[in-house]
Amino acid sequence: MNSSPANSQQVTAVISHYIRPGRESGYEAWLEGISQTAREFEGHNGVTILRPQAGLRSEYVIILRFDQYRNLCRWMKSKERQEWIERAKPLTEKPENVQFLTGLEALVSLPNTITTPPKHKTAFVTWIGVFVCVSTLGYFLAPYLLGLPYLLRQAIMTGLVVVLLAYVVMPRLTRLFHGWLHQR
User: Fold this and answer.
1) Which of 61-70, 71-80, 122-131 shows the highest mean pLDDT?
2) What are phi and psi for residue 64, nearest 5 degrees?
3) Residue 106 pLDDT > 80, yes or no?
4) Where does the chain hold its CATH 3.30.70.100 domain(s)?
5) CA 53 to CA 59: how far, in whole Å?
6) How far, in Å, CA of 105 to CA of 184, rounded?
7) Looking only at Cα atoms, what is the longest distance across the chain?
8) Are 91 and 38 within 8 A, CB to CB?
9) Are strands 97-101 and 11-17 parallel, antiparallel or unpaired?
10) Residue 168 has pLDDT above 50, yes or no
11) Which side of the chain, N or C, has fewer Cβ within a 10 Å radius?
12) Nearest to 45, CA basis, from 81, 11, 77
């Protein structure tokens, strides 16, 4: 882990594995086991698994999210993870590739597996997500927040927008717009 992002922001690890032909079922079982073990670590915020697709990518891609860089490092350096990585060696063709994302690019990009979308596409999809969140929260919550000071109202609304974007809206929009975001 070369860089040290701010310890307080969510971090995403994108891990690629190339599986030996005929070892897919063993790898699937391994994947279930390591995912379950990772869930037990502090700060684990979810895992998404992208399986190989002909013409798009030939490797398994694991998108692992933790609440903080420090917690991700604990998992990545843990004895438990090292034991699981040893078990994977007979199943994989080469060592895993691991990349870390901490910003907005983590919401729409998968490095080394799919091209990074152009900034205008990222901005457009992000705008849609922000619009949906702000409009929905404004409609339902604004009446309840009217008695609060302006800055407190804004802090609550923007905090909720960010949480909704990161965990609910952007993952769905990224799947919905995947073909357009990653056109060749």
Assistant:
1) 71-80
2) -115, 125
3) no
4) 11-108
5) 8
6) 18
7) 63
8) no
9) antiparallel
10) yes
11) C
12) 11
In the numeric block, which tokens belong to residue 134? 């702000």
* 102-137 exposure pattern, b = at least 16 Cβ within 10 A, e = fewer: eeeebbbbbbebbeebeeebbebbbeebbebbbeeb
CA proximity to 39, closest of 84, 9, 86? 84
Confidence of residue 128 (pLDDT cuts 50, 70, 90): very high
Helix 150-164 × helix 119-145 angle, to 10°: 130
- Stated pTM of the model: 0.56
Query: Which tokens sit at 24?
Result: 């897919």
Please determine, for residue 57, whether its predicted confidence score (pLDDT) is greater than 80.
no
pLDDT of residue 184: 60
Which tokens in the block code for residue 20? 């030996």
